Amino acid sequence: MTFSHQATRRSFLQGTAAAGSAAFLGASMSRAWAQSPNERPVFATIGLRNQGWGITAKSFKFADFAAMADVDANVLGENIEKASMRQSKKPDAYKDYRKVLDRKDIDAVMIATPDHWHTKIAVEAMYAGKDVYCEKPLTLTIAEGKLIEKVVEETGRVFQVGTMQRSESEQRFLLAVALVQNGRIGTVQKVTCGINGMESSPVIPVVPVPAELDWDFWLGPAPKVDYRALPEMREGYGGGVPLFSNCHYAFRNWHEYSGGKLTDWGAHHVDIACWALGATETGPSKITPIEFSLPVEYKDGNPLVHDQYNAATSFKIGVDMPNEVEMIITSEGDNGILFEGTKGRFFVNRGKITGKPVEDLQDNPLPEDAIEKVYGGPVSENHTANFIDSMKSRKQPISDVWSHNRMLEICHLSNIAMRLNRELEWDPKNREIVGDDLANSFLSREYRKGFEINM
């Protein structure tokens, strides 16, 4: 198995997918390389808390990890030790991800930093000749998505986005897509994505930065602000961090670093909805904030309070999709996706898929190859396996950047509509908001001096 470390700014590698489409490769390929030391790819993980370790742990079967990077010394040390117990060689530890990108022996990086770092690291990794697996949501802004697409084209790198519901082992979501695309609910009329709400916070005071954390580096491209936290600790998932802060775990509650539930769970369920609708190469025509609640006061789309969470706590967003399909994104009800059509309805989430069209499969099953047609081949063992198969074929994987960005545009626009408290008309061809200069100003962001993307 050959992996290329050489960046190619001027041309595609032969067979790489063109913009706006993706070529898929399933698990039918021989994985002898997974067991052969000379054939296994060499990986590094950048950003190790929670999901960073999660995607790393699922990848030891297929890859060897030569390095890991994190700006929190405790997180870095703990995960280096865990990794050393999962493979024969202890990975090298770095605070600065750029030292990882400088290494010529690393074939690919897995990025699981907070969202505001994704684009900078991903772009620089591709120009350093690395293939990339990056957690969702891929970007903090729509302009960042366009940039990543451009760099994938320029460099020919393989890029997997971490929307792993596309490779879910139970295949409920693949079955959902197959049901819709095989006409089992007739003409689709409405799809509802339930993605839960966010919590508000009390006033969070400025406190000393923990000794193990490089706060300035954690902020990176985001504006320079004080570190804030309350002493109460979070239990369970994300344990060992303050319950309320502007850093670890809680970063999703701040628009400076993420997009709340809209880009967290929304990046999963809106993705499956768009896939089922065949809307992965287009976008909505209108976004309407039907009802919502922001935890702090806003003016011209910017929060006026800076010591409390600012992402929407509850919402109901209407989205006008192609073919007159109505999409609703809501914080109410069960987490999952409800598909409704002229011949029936069904619901799917990570624990179940229910409804008469599902029950009818007992007497009227889908074609034997229905799931494989959705996936583009036999379903991979997991998301990493699909990524590495694609590294070998030099074809884009199941969660490609183009379909992800088209879906994520809906989530980003929903946040902008709430921040401005108005309906937005979207031009999916030119990928801009129609007749609204202020709204369009939120499609991009300025990077803090010293943390610009190195092109």
From TrEMBL:
* Domain annotation Gfo/Idh/MocA-like oxidoreductase bacterial type C-terminal: ranges: 205-452
- Provide a Gene Ontology MF annotation, just one: nucleotide binding
Keywords from the UniProt entry:
Oxidoreductase, Signal
The record places domain Gfo/Idh/MocA-like oxidoreductase N-terminal at: 81-162
Q: What class of enzyme is it?
A: oxidoreductase
- Point out the signal peptide segment: 1-34
- Report the InterPro entries cross-referenced here: Gfo/Idh/MocA-like_OxRdtase_N, Gfo/Idh/MocA_oxidrdct_glycsds, Gfo/Idh/MocA_OxRdtase_bact_C, NAD(P)-bd_dom_sf, TAT_signal, TAT_signal_bac_arc
Q: What is its EC number?
A: 1.1.1.18
Q: Which NCBIfam families match?
A: TAT_signal_seq
**UniProt-recorded name of the protein:** Inositol 2-dehydrogenase
